[in-house]
Protein backbone atom coordinates (compact mmCIF):
# COMPACT_ATOMS: atom_id res chain seq x y z
CA UNK A 1 0.00 0.00 0.00
CA UNK A 2 0.95 3.65 -0.18
CA UNK A 3 2.35 3.73 3.37
CA UNK A 4 4.62 0.77 2.65
CA UNK A 5 5.90 1.98 -0.74
CA UNK A 6 6.90 5.33 0.80
CA UNK A 7 9.34 3.73 3.22
CA UNK A 8 10.14 0.24 2.02
CA UNK A 9 10.35 0.31 -1.76
CA UNK A 10 13.98 0.61 -2.86
CA UNK A 11 15.31 1.08 -6.38
CA UNK A 12 18.73 -0.23 -7.27
CA UNK A 13 21.26 1.78 -9.27
CA UNK A 14 22.85 5.20 -9.05
CA UNK A 15 20.47 6.88 -11.49
CA UNK A 16 17.48 5.76 -9.40
CA UNK A 17 18.92 7.33 -6.24
CA UNK A 18 19.72 10.93 -7.25
CA UNK A 19 19.84 12.03 -3.59
CA UNK A 20 22.78 9.72 -2.82
CA UNK A 21 24.46 10.03 -6.22
CA UNK A 22 24.26 13.84 -6.17
CA UNK A 23 24.91 14.12 -2.41
CA UNK A 24 21.74 16.15 -2.21
CA UNK A 25 20.64 16.54 1.41
CA UNK A 26 17.30 18.13 0.49
CA UNK A 27 16.40 15.20 -1.74
CA UNK A 28 17.67 12.76 0.89
CA UNK A 29 15.18 14.16 3.40
CA UNK A 30 12.40 12.93 1.11
CA UNK A 31 13.15 9.47 2.48
CA UNK A 32 11.91 10.43 5.93
CA UNK A 33 9.15 12.82 4.91
CA UNK A 34 5.74 11.55 3.91
CA UNK A 35 5.32 10.72 0.24
CA UNK A 36 7.45 8.33 -1.82
CA UNK A 37 10.88 9.43 -3.13
CA UNK A 38 10.59 10.93 -6.65
CA UNK A 39 11.88 7.97 -8.69
CA UNK A 40 9.69 5.50 -6.74
CA UNK A 41 6.63 7.67 -7.24
CA UNK A 42 7.42 7.95 -10.96
CA UNK A 43 7.55 4.15 -11.26
CA UNK A 44 4.31 3.88 -9.30
CA UNK A 45 2.52 6.29 -11.60
CA UNK A 46 4.00 5.32 -14.95
CA UNK A 47 5.62 1.88 -14.57
CA UNK A 48 4.04 -0.69 -16.89
CA UNK A 49 4.36 -3.36 -14.19
CA UNK A 50 2.55 -1.34 -11.52
CA UNK A 51 -1.13 -1.68 -10.63
CA UNK A 52 -2.56 0.98 -8.28
CA UNK A 53 -6.18 0.68 -7.13
CA UNK A 54 -8.38 1.85 -4.27
CA UNK A 55 -9.70 -1.55 -3.22
CA UNK A 56 -8.55 -5.16 -3.25
CA UNK A 57 -11.11 -6.45 -5.76
CA UNK A 58 -9.99 -3.87 -8.33
CA UNK A 59 -6.33 -4.51 -7.51
CA UNK A 60 -6.64 -8.26 -8.15
CA UNK A 61 -8.60 -7.56 -11.35
CA UNK A 62 -5.80 -5.21 -12.45
CA UNK A 63 -3.15 -7.81 -11.64
CA UNK A 64 -5.03 -10.43 -13.61
CA UNK A 65 -5.22 -8.09 -16.61
CA UNK A 66 -1.45 -7.67 -16.44
CA UNK A 67 -0.71 -11.39 -16.06
CA UNK A 68 -3.69 -13.28 -17.51
CA UNK A 69 -1.54 -16.41 -17.85
CA UNK A 70 -1.51 -16.84 -14.06
CA UNK A 71 -4.79 -15.41 -12.72
CA UNK A 72 -5.20 -14.91 -8.98
CA UNK A 73 -8.35 -15.88 -7.11
CA UNK A 74 -9.75 -12.80 -5.38
CA UNK A 75 -11.27 -14.74 -2.45
CA UNK A 76 -7.93 -16.41 -1.70
CA UNK A 77 -5.96 -13.16 -1.85
CA UNK A 78 -8.53 -11.48 0.37
CA UNK A 79 -8.42 -14.22 3.00
CA UNK A 80 -4.59 -14.06 3.11
CA UNK A 81 -4.56 -10.26 3.42
CA UNK A 82 -7.29 -10.30 6.09
CA UNK A 83 -5.46 -13.00 8.06
CA UNK A 84 -2.28 -10.91 7.95
CA UNK A 85 -4.17 -7.78 8.96
CA UNK A 86 -5.70 -9.56 11.97
CA UNK A 87 -2.19 -10.25 13.28
CA UNK A 88 -1.31 -6.55 13.34
CA UNK A 89 -3.65 -6.13 16.32
CA UNK A 90 -2.25 -9.23 18.05
CA UNK A 91 0.50 -8.25 20.48
CA UNK A 92 1.60 -11.88 20.83
CA UNK A 93 1.51 -12.69 17.13
CA UNK A 94 3.35 -15.73 15.79
CA UNK A 95 3.25 -14.28 12.26
CA UNK A 96 6.93 -14.16 11.34
CA UNK A 97 6.59 -11.25 8.95
CA UNK A 98 4.77 -9.05 11.45
CA UNK A 99 7.23 -10.04 14.19
CA UNK A 100 10.19 -9.25 11.89
CA UNK A 101 8.69 -5.85 11.08
CA UNK A 102 8.38 -5.00 14.77
CA UNK A 103 11.92 -6.20 15.48
CA UNK A 104 13.35 -4.15 12.59
CA UNK A 105 11.71 -1.03 14.01
CA UNK A 106 13.69 -1.44 17.23
CA UNK A 107 16.62 0.14 15.33
CA UNK A 108 15.91 3.89 15.25
CA UNK A 109 17.28 4.80 11.77
CA UNK A 110 15.27 1.97 10.20
CA UNK A 111 12.20 2.98 12.16
CA UNK A 112 12.47 6.53 10.86
CA UNK A 113 13.49 5.88 7.28
CA UNK A 114 12.94 2.31 6.14
CA UNK A 115 10.13 0.41 7.85
CA UNK A 116 6.54 1.58 7.67
CA UNK A 117 4.66 1.65 10.97
CA UNK A 118 2.70 -1.61 11.31
CA UNK A 119 -0.83 -1.09 10.02
CA UNK A 120 -3.61 -3.01 8.34
CA UNK A 121 -3.11 -3.24 4.57
CA UNK A 122 -6.85 -2.85 4.11
CA UNK A 123 -6.98 0.32 6.22
CA UNK A 124 -8.34 2.89 3.73
CA UNK A 125 -6.03 5.53 5.29
CA UNK A 126 -3.00 3.49 4.13
CA UNK A 127 -4.18 3.29 0.52
CA UNK A 128 -4.19 3.12 -2.41
CA UNK A 129 -3.23 -0.53 -2.80
CA UNK A 130 -0.28 -1.28 -5.05
CA UNK A 131 0.81 -4.44 -6.88
CA UNK A 132 3.98 -4.90 -8.91
CA UNK A 133 4.54 -7.62 -11.48
CA UNK A 134 7.78 -9.47 -10.80
CA UNK A 135 10.29 -10.48 -13.43
CA UNK A 136 13.09 -12.85 -12.56
CA UNK A 137 16.63 -12.06 -13.62
CA UNK A 138 20.13 -13.03 -12.63
CA UNK A 139 21.60 -10.23 -10.60
CA UNK A 140 24.85 -11.75 -9.50
CA UNK A 141 26.64 -15.03 -9.84
CA UNK A 142 28.15 -16.92 -6.95
CA UNK A 143 30.84 -18.66 -8.90
CA UNK A 144 32.22 -18.86 -12.40
CA UNK A 145 35.45 -19.74 -14.11
CA UNK A 146 38.41 -20.11 -11.80
CA UNK A 147 41.24 -17.72 -12.57
CA UNK A 148 44.68 -16.87 -11.23
CA UNK A 149 45.68 -13.32 -10.15
CA UNK A 150 46.30 -12.40 -13.80
CA UNK A 151 42.67 -13.34 -14.65
CA UNK A 152 43.93 -16.31 -16.68
CA UNK A 153 41.38 -19.12 -16.71
CA UNK A 154 42.50 -22.26 -14.93
CA UNK A 155 41.58 -25.78 -15.96
CA UNK A 156 40.12 -28.15 -13.38
CA UNK A 157 43.60 -29.59 -12.74
CA UNK A 158 44.87 -26.05 -11.91
CA UNK A 159 46.93 -25.59 -15.07
CA UNK A 160 46.58 -22.38 -17.13
CA UNK A 161 44.18 -22.46 -20.09
CA UNK A 162 46.46 -20.77 -22.56
CA UNK A 163 45.16 -17.54 -24.12
CA UNK A 164 41.85 -17.53 -22.21
CA UNK A 165 41.07 -14.74 -19.72
CA UNK A 166 37.97 -14.20 -17.64
CA UNK A 167 36.90 -11.06 -15.78
CA UNK A 168 33.77 -9.73 -14.10
CA UNK A 169 30.65 -11.79 -13.47
CA UNK A 170 31.82 -14.75 -15.50
CA UNK A 171 34.83 -15.10 -13.21
CA UNK A 172 32.74 -14.63 -10.04
CA UNK A 173 34.01 -11.07 -9.62
CA UNK A 174 30.59 -9.48 -9.92
CA UNK A 175 29.91 -9.54 -6.21
CA UNK A 176 28.87 -13.02 -5.21
CA UNK A 177 32.30 -14.51 -5.74
CA UNK A 178 34.51 -11.92 -4.08
CA UNK A 179 32.16 -10.37 -1.58
CA UNK A 180 30.34 -13.45 -0.40
CA UNK A 181 26.76 -14.60 -0.29
CA UNK A 182 25.18 -11.35 0.82
CA UNK A 183 27.43 -8.97 -1.05
CA UNK A 184 26.51 -5.33 -0.57
CA UNK A 185 24.78 -3.10 -3.06
CA UNK A 186 27.13 -1.28 -5.37
CA UNK A 187 30.13 -3.51 -4.81
CA UNK A 188 29.90 -5.48 -8.05
CA UNK A 189 31.29 -3.15 -10.66
CA UNK A 190 34.49 -2.52 -8.72
CA UNK A 191 35.44 -6.20 -8.80
CA UNK A 192 34.48 -6.47 -12.48
CA UNK A 193 36.66 -3.51 -13.45
CA UNK A 194 39.52 -4.65 -11.23
CA UNK A 195 39.59 -8.17 -12.68
CA UNK A 196 39.21 -6.69 -16.19
CA UNK A 197 42.25 -4.51 -15.60
CA UNK A 198 44.25 -7.50 -14.39
CA UNK A 199 43.20 -9.45 -17.50
CA UNK A 200 44.07 -6.55 -19.83
CA UNK A 201 47.47 -6.04 -18.28
CA UNK A 202 48.28 -9.75 -18.39
CA UNK A 203 47.13 -10.04 -22.01
CA UNK A 204 49.29 -7.03 -22.96
CA UNK A 205 52.30 -8.59 -21.24
C1 LIG B 1 19.43 -4.82 -11.94
C2 LIG B 1 20.89 -4.79 -11.60
C3 LIG B 1 21.38 -3.73 -10.84
C4 LIG B 1 22.74 -3.67 -10.52
N1 LIG B 1 23.18 -2.61 -9.80
C5 LIG B 1 24.48 -2.51 -9.52
C6 LIG B 1 24.98 -1.38 -8.80
O1 LIG B 1 24.24 -0.45 -8.44
N2 LIG B 1 26.30 -1.34 -8.53
C7 LIG B 1 27.17 -2.33 -8.88
O2 LIG B 1 28.36 -2.24 -8.59
N3 LIG B 1 26.71 -3.41 -9.57
C8 LIG B 1 25.40 -3.52 -9.90
N4 LIG B 1 24.94 -4.61 -10.60
C9 LIG B 1 25.88 -5.67 -11.01
C10 LIG B 1 26.74 -5.23 -12.19
O3 LIG B 1 25.91 -4.54 -13.11
C11 LIG B 1 27.34 -6.47 -12.86
O4 LIG B 1 28.07 -7.20 -11.91
C12 LIG B 1 28.30 -6.05 -13.99
O5 LIG B 1 27.64 -5.21 -14.92
C13 LIG B 1 28.81 -7.27 -14.69
O6 LIG B 1 29.70 -6.85 -15.73
P1 LIG B 1 30.34 -7.89 -16.69
O7 LIG B 1 31.05 -7.10 -17.75
O8 LIG B 1 31.12 -8.91 -15.94
O9 LIG B 1 29.11 -8.72 -17.30
P2 LIG B 1 27.93 -8.19 -18.23
O10 LIG B 1 27.71 -6.72 -18.04
O11 LIG B 1 26.80 -9.14 -18.00
O12 LIG B 1 28.51 -8.37 -19.69
C14 LIG B 1 28.51 -9.60 -20.35
C15 LIG B 1 28.32 -9.28 -21.82
O13 LIG B 1 28.53 -10.45 -22.60
C16 LIG B 1 27.56 -10.47 -23.62
N5 LIG B 1 27.46 -11.87 -24.10
C17 LIG B 1 26.88 -12.91 -23.47
N6 LIG B 1 26.99 -14.02 -24.20
C18 LIG B 1 27.67 -13.65 -25.33
C19 LIG B 1 28.08 -14.37 -26.49
N7 LIG B 1 27.87 -15.68 -26.64
N8 LIG B 1 28.76 -13.69 -27.44
C20 LIG B 1 29.00 -12.36 -27.30
N9 LIG B 1 28.62 -11.64 -26.23
C21 LIG B 1 27.96 -12.29 -25.26
C22 LIG B 1 26.32 -9.94 -22.98
O14 LIG B 1 25.41 -9.47 -23.94
C23 LIG B 1 26.90 -8.81 -22.12
O15 LIG B 1 26.98 -7.60 -22.84
C24 LIG B 1 23.60 -4.70 -10.95
C25 LIG B 1 23.11 -5.76 -11.71
C26 LIG B 1 21.77 -5.80 -12.04
C27 LIG B 1 21.26 -6.94 -12.92
Structure summary, number of beta strands: 4
Determine the number of helices (DSSP H or I, runs of at least 4 residues): 10
Using the CA coordinates, give the radius of gyration: 23 Å
Mean pLDDT rating: 90
Helix content: 40-55%
Q: What's the number of structural domains?
A: 2
Given as residue ranges, the uncertain stretches (5+ residues, pLDDT < 50) are none
Largest sheet entry? 2 strands, antiparallel
Give the DSSP E fraction (strand runs of 2 or more residues): 5-15%
Q: Structural class, from helix and strand content? A: mainly alpha
State the distance separating the first and last CA atoms: 57 Å
Along the chain, the helix and strand elements come as HHHHEHHHHEEEHH
Strand order of the largest sheet: 1-2
> Which ligands appear in the coordinates?
flavin-adenine dinucleotide
Global geometry: elongated
Task: Give a description of the structure.
Helix content is 42%, strand content 8%. By secondary structure, it is mainly alpha-helical. The chain folds into two domains: 2-132, no CATH class; 152-204, no CATH class. Strands 1-2 form a two-stranded antiparallel ribbon. The longest helix is centred in the C-terminal third of the chain and has 17 residues, at 188-204.
